[in-house]
Every structure is written in C-alpha cells, then in structure tokens.
Description:
Helix content: 10-25%
Shape: globular
Strand content: 35-45%
Strand order of the largest sheet: 6-9-4-3-12-15-14
Structural class: alpha+beta
Oligomer: single chain
Distance between the termini: 12 Å
Largest sheet: 7 strands, mixed
Number of strands: 37
Amino acid sequence: MRLAVLTALLLTVVTTLSLTRPQAAPRQVSQKTPDRRQLAAEIRTDHELFRKSERQNYEAWQVSPTESQNLVTVQPADVLNYKLALQVAPGTTNFIGTVDIKAAATSNNFSTFLIDLDRQLNVDSLKVSGVTGTTGFERNGNQISVRFGKPLAAGTEFTVTIAYSGSPRSFSNLSNGGAVFFTTHQGTPIIATLSEPYGSPAWWPCVDNPADKATVQMAITVPDPYVAASNGTLTEIREEGNGRKTYLWDEKYPISPYLVSLAVTNYKQFQDTYTALDGTKMPLTYFVYPEHFDIAQQKFAITRKAMEIFAPLYGEYPFLKEKYGMAEFPWGGGMEHQTLTSLGGGIVASGGSSQSIIAHELAHQWWGDNVTCGRWNDIWLNEGFATYSEVLFFEKNLKVPAGDLMVENYDDGRANGALRGTVIAEDLADPFDDTNAVYDKGAWVLHMLRGLMGDDNFFKMLREYRQRHAYGNATTPDFQNVCELAYGAPLGDFFNQWVYSQLRPTYAFSYDSKPDGNGGYTIFARIDQKQTHSLNGEKGVSTYKMPLLLTVTTEDGKKQQVTVFNRFRSQVFALQTTARPRNVQFDADSFVLKEMTQATGSVTAKALSMTATASTVTGKAPLQVEFSGTAGGATLPDASMSWATEKKVLGQGAKLTYTFDRPGVYEVTLTGVNKKVASTSTPLRITVTE
C-alpha cells in the first residue's frame, strides 16, 4: 500500500454536514394507537406457530451432503407443461396417476432426460412421443433416466408419459420425511401436500428444480362428497359416475414444481372479491373445514386489505386472470402454493387474528411464486421478502412505524443472538437450517436498503426487480444488480456485510456541542464500532460501512435529521445547528440492524477556518493519501464503496489518512467552513491506477 501526502487541512476524522435528510424514508406518524403489546404478542405467537412447523418440515427433508448433489435436477432441457391426472380416495394412502411431461432440448446432442420420482412409487409404464428412434428408461434411486435412441437437437420438443401408483411417503411420521398428509379433521379424512423444498417427487413425477417452471393442468378424481382444490382456475367439475367427480384445474402461469398443490377433504367454500388497480375483478376463493367456516370468514377478510396494500407497492397481483385463495390443511404453518395458499387448521382455529401469517403467505405470491429463487441457497429472496411484507402490512394498515415494528418483533437486539447467522443459505442439504437469519435478518436487509434508498427509490426498485424476473427466477446477484442500478452506485460491501456475513455491528455513540461563535452550535457526534468478528471470513476486515441517521432535537423543540456515512472504527461528525441542542439520537428510525453498547470517553473538537494549496497525486491502488494543513474542509469521494461523498473538517496541525481502494480519478474539493474564507477553485486531483 502506497502513501502520498497532500498539503491541505484537517482536524480528525470529522465529517461536517448540514442538517437535512433528502433520501431517507419518512417516519410515519400514527393516526391511531393500536395496542402494541397485543400486536407484538400476536406476531410472536404466529411466528412460533408456523416457524416450528416449518422447521419440522425442513428437518423431514434434510439429507446428507452427498445426496444433496442430486437434489436439484439440472440438465439442458426445459419443461414446458405438465398434465397430471390423479385418482385419490380419502381414508386410504393410495395414489393412481398419469403425467404427461412436455419438454424441449435446450442444447444439441441431448440424449438423456432426467425425471425425479421417489423410489417408493411404482412406474407402471413409460412412453415417449415426438421423437424418432428407440427410447428406453431406467430407474436409479429417486430418478428416472429416459434415454433417446438418437440425440436431440436444441429446440426439439418431446413428451414423456408416465403411469405410476403407490403410497407416497407421509407426514404421519416426520422422521421418515414425506410430502403428503393423510389424516383427519373431526373424523373426516383429508389428503394434502406440502413439497418445499424437495418433496414434489414424493407424490408426482417431475423435474424437481425451482428454476424449471412450466404450466400445469391437474385432473383430480375423488369420491363424493369430497372437494379437490389446486392451483389456477377450476375449469370443470366432471361427473364420472359411481359417486365420483373429477376437478379440473388449469394453472396457465409458469409454476415451480414445489408450488404445485393438492388438497382434498369435505371443504366448505366461500368467496370475496378483489378489485385490481385497473378495476378488474378477481375472486378470492377459500376452502375451509366446515367446523371452522364462521371463524375463517372473520379471519380471511383481512386478505383483501392486504392485497390492496401490496399491489401499489409491488405492482399488481401477478395471477390476476386466475384467483387467490386459501385451503385449510393439517399443519401448524402456511405454505404459499401458487394462487392457493395452504393454511394450517391450528392457525385458522386459533384465538388470534393470524394477520401476520395471512399477509406473509399472500406476499409470497409476488416474492416466491411470481419471482422464485433460482436456487435454494437464495431462499431469503422468498422468505425475507415475505417477512418484510408483514411489516409493510402493519405499517400501512395500523400506521405503526416500520422501524418500531422491526425492533419490537423481528430482532432480539443482540449481535450473537437469534439473527447471528448468514442470510444466504450455505447448506444446500438443509437450506432452512437457520430460519431466523433467512426470515428476519433477510427482512432487515430490505429494511436497511429502504433506509439507504428512501421510500420512492426502494419501492421503485422492488417493482423493477419484480418486472425483470416475473414468472421466472432470480438469485441474490440478480437482486443486487437491480439494487445497484436503482441506487446508482456499487453495493458490494453492503451485501457482503449483511447477506454473506454473520453477526452485526456493535455501536457506541456519544456527542458534545459547543457554540460556533456565530450564534449557532457545532455538535461533535462520535461513533465507535466495537465488534471483533471478521466480515464474511475476511481476516482483519471487521469494520461496517453504513449510512447512519442522527436526529438532533434543539431546545426550541425542532427536530432535524442528517445521514452520516460511517466507515471507520472511530469517527467524529461535525453537525451545525442554529439552536442549542437538547438531544442527539442515533438511528432513531431503527433502520440498521445493530447492537448498542455504552460509549466511553468524551468528544471534544473545534471547527476552524481554512487555507489550502491545490495539488495532484498519482499512485497504484490501494493508495493512501495523507491530508494535513492549517484549517478548513474538504469534500472527499467515498473511494472504498462509492455510496456517497464525505465532507471532512480539517483543522490546525492535524492529519487525516484517506484510502482510495479502487482505481479511478478523484477530485477533492476544498471548501471553507464559514463565509469569511473563500473556497479554492482548483480541486485536488487524485489519480489511482491498477
């Protein structure tokens, strides 16, 4: 690392800023005062209920690292459509089905098509149409290999038809895994599926990859008086004779295999109507146990309100030509099956409002169903987004500030607490091994991006992200790319700190103030970072670089806010105000995931006027430049992260070492601290080479 010296000015690492906050999201003023303790208790109960159930589900599907290599089937083929016909008989566990899988080769010389099907189910027959040459198949564990006699060229379409039967692995014993519930409610049989993350092949043949979406038609034959609910639009109920009916469901929007749903019991139905932003009417269709009909009508009413909140924020409901609905099933949690969320009977019957779960699962229709994580490591793009949607729902519906909701309900305030893990799921064999990080810390990532960008840019960014990846898939780098385009600068350090690293920063904050000699006051606010862990395993890199909000309350009762950019372990910021300060609050709107500790030591500093000499420096990155001189100020680019510029106060006889980490040409503009000193017209030019 090279060191250059410029003649200039300096006090310590002090930033002088005017008290404005042009981009940060406004703090909402409550128009009504909900019982915050009751709300917190309901959210906590909801979270405990469905997080425990989800943990059990994911543990049921946990596999060894060796097996995980084959969990997601990746091949040069694209499934276009599934036609699934199933015969089920509630009270038994037997499935009889036929699946037509229409697909296309995506590269030349494609010779083997892989299909996932649990070894417990029988393949009664398999045939291939649309291609020439002899074909055959073989089973290897939980996979079927269809081999073409003549390799296919890219773009060649073909159809594989599989007749199968057997008893799918069941949730009756979680330790044995399984994706189908065979149980009862008040003595009436129910069959229902839950396939996330790896359960789809347990009950139907498919290519089990969340990134391989296809349209699906499902024909479900059941005896009277049972009702079969599934994804998409109910196009027909066909009488089959012998007391049986076939429910024909058509999902015309692309869907990931794990989101395909089956739910069969003696459902009682009711409907509501959602009016879209353009005036289009869409049904909200609910399938519930008869014994829960009355309470479900009360609880589910909030769904329409939640949809009216989310549509303007995220863009219109993505499956407007079909429906949104919920089907009750025998589990403690919820599952965001596309267009038809499955909601646990215990949630429906519970004494609380279940608003957070209803809002969470609805939000998944945008984040998880419309835009689906392209790989299970990025499941936070589903769950963190849906969790933050809970916050947005309560913020908009109850007028509770988002920061208050985050602190009170989605954090324990401890660096080594429940949210200590990484947001990114590092273990493909068990992507839900740390639900607190995936769900709640993932929500904090969005909340911090909102604080960084401001409301307008943040929600515009979400709509752009959704539009780019609608009816498809996205990864964390895809999301980062959209964030950077919206923000106008790289965010690599932000994602490294908050998505890929464990733990969080620990801050200590203190301040002092002095009259500035012109009738106003200079506040010297000190921020220290106390954490000792390394970021993303980088030895010696333990400093967080974040914009932080300081809120100044003066004795005349006015509040002023300024966002400072903190990038050093210890940093002092100089704030100018016209009235005597009464209080300075650190991150008053709670936009940063943090732990606070007691500050030690005092803050003393004095801003002086400026004289300086313009110079130029050239050197290789990383280049350290030492500024020194008599007095004044300098506007420096943020050379490490390019998030913003920083205004440094430079004082008598002091020195500042500033590191330019990235190649480029930087201009350091010298400015006067008061009107008596003229600014220099020639900037200091720093040229940093590779």
